[in-house]
C-alpha cells in the first residue's frame, strides 16, 4: 500500500512543477522574444516481482512479467523555439529575425549572450543596445547627425547624413545559431548562454548559410499560445486531483486494514 502513496505523491509533485512552468509561460505572454517551455515526464523505477520470460514452478516460460511502477518524475523543461508573431512598430531600431538565429549581446563580464528580442535602442553615445543597456555584438554606433537609420534584410546598417545623397554604411549585424538551441541556458532578460548541450555557436551573415533575415521596424513577440496553456493547466489540475484521490483511497485502505479484527 505504501507504493501507492509514494507513487501518487510523485505524480502530485510532477504536476505542481508542470503548473509552475505553465504559469511562467502565461506570465511572459507579452514578453518580446520569449520562448515557451514545456515539461518532459519520465516513469521512475519498477519493482520487479517476476521477470518477463521467467520459468514457472511447472518449468514453463511465462510470457509476461510482474512489475509495479513507482511513480513519475520531471526530467526536463525544454524551450520551444518556434517563431512568435510579429508586431509592426515602424521603429527602424526594432529588429525581428525571419527564420533561425539569435542576436549577439555583449555582457559586462565580456562574454556573449544570445537573444531573439530585437527591441534595440540608442544609448548616450549612439551605441545600439538592448533594453538593459547591453550593446549589440559586434558593436554598432549610430552618428548623432544621422537623419534616419535603415537596416537591410542582410543586416546591413546604413544612415542618412546631411549634405550627402548616398547613405553611409556603418556595418553589418551578425546572427548566431546553435545545432541544439534547446540546450541553451536561460539567463533571464531574454538572454541565453551556450552550454555543452547546445553545441558550438555558428555566426554568419543574415540570409546566408541557413540563417534568417533581419526585418527592421518589427519585433517578435512571445510564442505562447494562451488557449493551449490554459488547456494544459486544466489537464495538469485534473491529474493533480486524480493523484490526490489515489492518496486518499490508499489511506482509506490502510485504515481498513488497521481496523481489521481477528
Structure write-up:
The chain is α+β, with helices and mostly antiparallel strands. It has two domains: 2-81 and 224-258, no CATH class; 86-220, no CATH class. Helices cover 23% and strands 30% of the residues. The chain has two helices and 19 strands. It has helices at 2-27, 226-258; strands at 37-43, 46-50, 66-69, 72-79, 86-88, 95-98, 102-106, 112-115, 121-122, 128-129, 148-151, 156-160, 168-172, 175-177, 185-188, 191-193, 202-204, 213-216, 218-220. The protein has a six-stranded antiparallel β-sheet, with no helix packed on it. A hairpin with a 2-residue loop joins strand 15 (185-188) and strand 16 (191-193). Helix 1 runs antiparallel to helix 2 (226-258). It is elongated and about 100 Å long. It starts with a helix and ends with a helix. The mean pLDDT is 91.
Number of strands: 19
Cross-sheet strand order for the largest sheet: 15-16-8-7-14-17
How widely separated are the two ends?
20 Å
Order of helices and strands: HEEEEEEEEEEEEEEEEEEEH
The number of domains = 2
Ordered list of secondary-structure elements with their pairings:
Layout: H1 2-27, E1 37-43, E2 46-50, E3 66-69, E4 72-79, E5 86-88, E6 95-98, E7 102-106, E8 112-115, E9 121-122, E10 128-129, E11 148-151, E12 156-160, E13 168-172, E14 175-177, E15 185-188, E16 191-193, E17 202-204, E18 213-216, E19 218-220, H2 226-258
Antiparallel strand pairs: 1-4, 2-3, 5-19, 6-18, 7-8, 7-14, 8-16, 9-10, 11-12, 12-13, 14-17, 15-16
Helix pairs in contact: 1-2
Amino acid at each position: 500500500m505504501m507504493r501507492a502513496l509514494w507513487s501518487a505523491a510523485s505524480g502530485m509533485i510532477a504536476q505542481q512543477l508542470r503548473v509552475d512552468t505553465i504559469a511562467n509561460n502565461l506570465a511572459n505572454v507579452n514578453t518580446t522574444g520569449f520562448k515557451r517551455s514545456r515539461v518532459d515526464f519520465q516513469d521512475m523505477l519498477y519493482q520487479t516481482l517476476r521477470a518477463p520470460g521467467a520459468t514457472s514452478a511447472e518449468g514453463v516460460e511465462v510470457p509476461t512479467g510482474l512489475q509495479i511502477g513507482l511513480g513519475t518524475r520531471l526530467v526536463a523543461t525544454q524551450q520551444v523555439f518556434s517563431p512568435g508573431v510579429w508586431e509592426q512598430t515602424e521603429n527602424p531600431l526594432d529588429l525581428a529575425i525571419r527564420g533561425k538565429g539569435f542576436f549577439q549581446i555583449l555582457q559586462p563580464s565580456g562574454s556573449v549572450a544570445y537573444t531573439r528580442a530585437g527591441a534595440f535602442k540608442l544609448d548616450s553615445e549612439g551605441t545600439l543596445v538592448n533594453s538593459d543597456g547591453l550593446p549589440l555584438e559586434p558593436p554598432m554606433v549610430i552618428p548623432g547627425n544621422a537623419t534616419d537609420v535603415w537596416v537591410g534584410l542582410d543586416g546591413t546598417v546604413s544612415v542618412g547624413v546631411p549634405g550627402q545623397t548616398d547613405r553611409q554604411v556603418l556595418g553589418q549585424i551578425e546572427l548566431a545559431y546553435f545545432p541544439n538551441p534547446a540546450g541553451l541556458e536561460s539567463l533571464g532578460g531574454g538572454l541565453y548562454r551556450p552550454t555543452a548541450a547546445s553545441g558550438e555557436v555558428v555566426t554568419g551573415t543574415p540570409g546566408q548559410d541557413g540563417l534568417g533575415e533581419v526585418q527592421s521596424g518589427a519585433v517578435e513577440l512571445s510564442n505562447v499560445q494562451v488557449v493551449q496553456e490554459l488547456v494544459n493547466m486544466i489537464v495538469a489540475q485534473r491529474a493533480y486531483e486524480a493523484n490526490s484521490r489515489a492518496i486518499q483511497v490508499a489511506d482509506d485502505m490502510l485504515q481498513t486494514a488497521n481496523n481489521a479484527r481477528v
